[in-house]
Amino acid sequence: MTKQIFLYDTTLRDGSQGEGISFSSEDKIRIAKRLDAFGVHYIEGGWPGSNPKDIAFFKEAAKLTWKNATITAFGSTRRPGLTAAEDKNLAAILDSGVRVATIFGKSWDFHVTDALRTTLEENLSMIRESIEFLRAHGLTVFYDAEHFFDGYKANPEYALETVSTAAQAGAAYIILCDTNGGTLPSEVSQIVRVVKGVVGVPLGIHAHNDSGLAVANTLMAVEAGAVQVQGTVNGIGERAGNADLCAVIPNLQLKMGKSCVTPEQLATLTKLSRFVSELANMQPVPSQPFVGRSVFAHKGGVHVSALRRHPETYEHIPPELVGNTRRVLVSELSGSANIMYKLEEYDLQPAEPFAPQRLVNIIKEMENQGYYFEGAEASFEILLKKALGLHQQLFELIGFRLIIEKHNSEDAPVAEASIKLKVGDQIIHTVADGNGPVNALDAALRKALGEVYPQINHMKLSDYKVRVLDERSGTGAKVRVLIETTDNGRSWGTVGVSTDIIEASWRALSDSIDYGLRLRADANNSVINSE
């Protein structure tokens, strides 16, 4: 029978301690709702009383109905020299309105004597009395044994005494913390087995990633008997971060046969990862295991050839199990198999006999010139359709002119673009100003096409990147322009290359508009020039 593993998410507390990360109380509520829908069992909301945002979070969380998760509050054992009833930290936990509290205490004798500056006996009393106090007020208590693995290696007898005290006081879980993130997986396995034989309370694991081993240590702890795993979405957290639940959960469920969430919930993991990245104002990591954009991307022709027959040859799981997607890239490393895969992906049927190797050779030559299609799949799709005789030209450039004027040393330059296009039998000639020559050209193109293709008004240029390809050529260097465009939640990338930055920008811009118009028409199942 599959063993249930309980998920404890600390993104809102431990994750927010990561450098550059700051969640508002509204952000924390939104993330908590997504975690609840995903199936997380416990969501650590923060440290009550430590700051206004956490106070506001617990106040709002108390008003909501949670389908899967229990909201928990975090805090420490009472301070030395105080009774539990006198400790403001414990009082704040009670005031938060939660039913489950997680408190941490010292396991390492060095921390007790040098950080807390108290006695080993007093530390045991702090653990016992804090747990008993919260339980007496009706709370379920989880005990985080801080620095447990370091403490065990320094003084195993005392470290075990601290967790035994917590268990005897009534802690529902004992969570062993690799707070410094320096323990090896083999050590975690051995120590968890020892603790499991000493205390009769379910164990959990809280691992930090300072040695790059947080996920491995979490899995080893589960293998050794832990039934609760603590971590954060995307592994965010202070220093090197926490155990990444986006890797822990699928490894447990798909590789180790442990039940964490339903298959339907697991299939939303990639969306959860990207949602948290967005609210944390962080760029998603393309190579992040399971949920990264690149982890099911295939480039080499030999790989793609095998992949078309048996995906498991180069994929350790089907990507859809975690809500990710397979991507086949086209580059100078591609073979005919990459092209044929793209034909199937785009559902294209050649209008005439087609030799995929011819297009491979074209792509290799273009990449030798500086083109790069991995971040510009819209440009590649247009190229592919042209090669197949399936591309309908929506507009033809007759010419454009750019004027840049600077009237004195203080004022910014003023850019004006005039453009002449042919659309069907119609000649359109218009002028637009812009913040620089590329912006003016973009504005003129949109203005010229707007009356014929009003859909263009929904498309927004969201990113514009320029890379110099041969720096030694100085101001005459060839440049590559990558443009990302969005429309109603969809985005696509296009590319242009030239020794002239305006020409490179034009190629990327025209591809962007061409692709976007077709995309919107396909979505509406309509002709291109209608709304």
Q: In terms of structural class, how would the helical and strand content be classed? A: alpha/beta
Largest sheet, described in full? 8 strands, parallel, barrel
Gap between N and C termini: 55 Å
Number of domains: 3
How would you sum up this structure, described in words?
This protein is of the alpha/beta class and 531 residues long. The protein folds into 3 domains: 6-261, Aldolase class I (TIM Barrel), CATH 3.20.20; 297-388, no CATH class; 395-452, 2-Layer Sandwich (Double Stranded RNA Binding Domain). Helices cover 40% and strands 20% of the residues. The protein contains 18 helices and 16 strands. The protein has helices spanning 25-38, 52-61, 88-95, 109-116, 120-136, 148-154, 156-169, 185-198, 214-223, 245-255, 263-266, 269-279, 301-309, 336-346, 356-369, 377-388, 437-450, 501-524, and strands at 6-9, 42-46, 70-76, 100-106, 140-146, 173-178, 203-207, 228-231, 297-298, 327-328, 396-405, 414-423, 426-434, 460-468, 479-487, 490-498. The strands form 4 sheets. The protein has an 8-stranded parallel β-barrel, surrounded by 10 helices. Helix 5 packs parallel to helix 7 (156-169) and helix 14 (336-346) crosses helix 15 (356-369). The model has no long low-confidence stretch (mean pLDDT 87).
